[in-house]
Amino acid sequence: MTEKLIRIGTRGSQLALAQASEVRARLMSAHALPESAFSITVISTSGDRILDRPLSEVGGKGLFTKEIELALIEERIDIAVHSSKDMATALPEGLEISAYLPREDVRDVFIGRAAPTIAELPQGATIGSASLRRQAMLKRLRPDLNVIIFRGNVQTRLRKLDEGLADGTLLALAGLKRMDMTGVATEIFDPEHFPPAPGQGAICIESRIGDDRVKALVGGIADAETTAALTAERAFLAELDGSCRTPIAARATLRPDGTMSLHGMILKPDGSEMHETRRTGLATEAEALGRLAGRDVLEAAGPNFFAGWAN
Ligand SMILES: NCc1[nH]cc(CCC(=O)O)c1CC(=O)O
């Protein structure tokens, strides 16, 4: 089907490399291609380099994708592999998300050193997290906790725990599963009460619009259910303008009868206010469902909700 090398671009973290290998393995088996049909190019992103400031300050979404997208545009790679939750809702001109892979576990986990669960943490314990959503949801559960910024890839964050910089941290179970590291988790959160970031647990493939060879290839490994769920969650995010300065959570779940339910949530960064919505609709109308859910929480929050801290 293809003689030309398929060039995959990815970040260099252990998780990113595991994701790129998964994409390659799925493409190999879907199209009976040898490993030699692919190359994997590691691209460093600003998100990997700027480690001393919170994500929301350094530019938010796009931070982990910009340099990889540039490589796509400049045709140095053909396929970019990303964690969907790191993707902005608006893509650079000429690029598209051409496939979502079957979703991994969407849940967040706690990795506790002072105690195995959030509830058992001593008063005033220190928790590291770079995610505004996790910080806000944590403060909502336990206003007494001291939440500090924890940047860096999964290995860096675990090392910070070993160094005693915090009593615990929160991570996505999906990433731990992909790296065969689920053993570090001490508590798995119920996504009904601690919903994930939009797109969490789903690998996506970005490519050039009009690259028909790549489109045909990745079409063979795309997952329809994940695509529908992600369409709803990303529409919810887009309705809220997708700013990385707003703690936003969303989880779409599909039922066998073709309906989908979407749970969406926004919070104030300090956890003092929370608005959520649950909507059900047809999976084929995922985009509209996400938009409507976004409007629900905007309406519930009111115009003053964003004043003072967002944008
Ligand atoms: N921002 C880093 C990032 N991007 C995606 C994941 C997890 C894997 C996934 O959601 O698919 C992580 C690490 C984490 O939150 O633990």
Short summary:
With 311 residues, the protein is an alpha/beta fold.
List strands and helices in order, with pairings.
Layout: E1 6-10, H1 14-31, E2 38-42, H2 46-49, H3 55-58, H4 66-73, E3 79-83, E4 95-100, E5 108-112, E6 126-128, H5 132-141, E7 146-148, H6 154-162, E8 168-172, H7 173-178, E9 187-188, E10 203-208, H8 212-219, H9 224-239, E11 248-254, E12 259-267, E13 274-282, H10 286-301
Parallel strand pairs: 1-2, 1-3, 6-7, 6-8
Antiparallel strand pairs: 3-10, 4-10, 5-8, 5-9, 11-12, 12-13
The CATH homologous superfamily of the largest domain is called: Periplasmic binding protein-like II
Q: Could you say which structural class the secondary elements and strand pairing correspond to?
A: alpha/beta
- At the first level of CATH, the class of the largest domain is Alpha Beta
Strand order of the largest sheet: 2-1-3-10-4
Number of domains: 3
Question: Could you state the order of secondary-structure elements as H and E?
Answer: EHEHHHEEEEHEHEHEEHHEEEH
Ions, cofactors and other bound molecules: ligand PBG
How many DSSP helices?
A: 10
Uncertain residue ranges:
none
* Share in helix: 25-40%
Shape, per Cα inertia axes: globular
Largest sheet: 5 strands, mixed
Instruction: Please state the CA-atom Rg, rounded to the nearest Å.
Output: 19 Å
Number of DSSP E strands? 13
Q: What is the residue-mean pLDDT, rounded to a whole number? A: 93
Modified residues (S-(dipyrrolylmethanemethyl)cysteine): 244
GO molecular function: hydroxymethylbilane synthase activity
Pfam family, one: Porphobil_deamC
Domain Porphobilinogen deaminase C-terminal: 229-296
